[in-house]
Write a structure and sequence with these properties.
about 230 residues; alpha/beta; Rossmann fold; 2 domains; 6-stranded mixed sheet; 4-stranded antiparallel sheet; 8 helices; 10 strands; binds adenosine-5'-diphosphate; binds magnesium ion
Length: about 230
């Protein structure tokens, strides 16, 4: 379980997150909606231990997230797969080497990391023929899928998605949205999605929050998401 209590986080003397509370249980999927620049990426990176915070509690399976405690963070990072907004693939590595990168770093032999990497390539619905392509040869949607395959390679308990559908055409938005749902359902990986895409949010509307004024609020049941978004 991920637990956030009373989180306070500033960026350059500006308070971005104020007394924020959030929980994500095993197997759950949560969506956090919010306008551009409101602090969604700051939130997800803080929970993942990629940014420090001033106050409050952030815990993953009972362990305190503290970016300055490398020993603990290594354990926590082994449980969290992060799908970055722009994919964050390594330009000089092929698709399959990108997917297997973390495995290689963790000492997997070539035969083994390649086997797992190909399995994850297939799991995200990409053809074997893209394995040798370089990131520059991939479309925006394919980069996100490779980034997702890489996150899956280390068998995470939690997946964090930062704007998984941003900048994609509609058919790719539909494809990635269904992939996110299937990964959660089939593999039981708890997922936290940060987005400003109402299509994506509506698909997972059982557990949806808005980030507003540094806090998470549940949209009222009677109001449509569009109305709430426009406020
Ligand atoms: N590294 C940084 N340096 C300066 N300001 C930043 C940095 N990262 C984020 N911010 C500021 O913090 C706020 C929240 O950013 P972010 O979390 O990226 O928003 P979102 O993901 O919701 O679009 C923005 O006003 C942004 O300008
Ligand atoms: Mg962002």
């Amino acid at each position: 379980m991920i637990k956030v209590e009373g989180l306070v986080k500033s960026v350059q003397d500006r308070v971005i997150l104020k007394d924020l509370n959030f929980t994500l249980k095993q197997g759950e999927i949560a969506v956090i909606l919010g306008r551009s620049g409101i602090g969604k990426t700051v939130f997800i990176k803080t929970v993942a231990g990629l940014l420090p915070y001033e106050k409050g509690i952030v815990e993953v399976d009972g362990m305190r997230v503290n970016p300055y405690n490398y020993t603990d963070m290594k354990i926590i990072w082994s449980k969290i797969g992060f799908v970055f907004q722009y994919g964050a693939l390594l330009d000089s590595l092929s698709t399959i080497e990108n997917i297997g990168f973390g495995l290689k770093e963790n000492g997997f032999k070539e035969k083994e990391w390649k086997r797992i990497a190909f399995e994850k390539l297939e799991a995200v619905g990409l053809d074997k023929s893209v394995a040798g392509l370089m990131p520059a040869q991939l479309s925006g949607g394919m980069k996100k899928m490779v980034s997702l395959a890489r996150a899956l390679a280390l068998s995470p308990n939690y997946l964090f998605y930062d704007e998984p559908t941003a900048g994609l055409d509609y058919s790719m938005v539909v494809r990635i949205t269904s992939l996110i749902g299937n990964i959660n359902k089939i593999l039981g990986i708890a997922s936290l999605i940060i987005t400003h895409d109402l299509y994506l949010a509506k698909k997972f509307r059982e557990n949806i929050y808005f980030l507003k004024d540094g806090r998470l609020v549940k949209p009222p049941k009677k109001v449509t998401l569009e109305d709430f978004y426009d406020e």
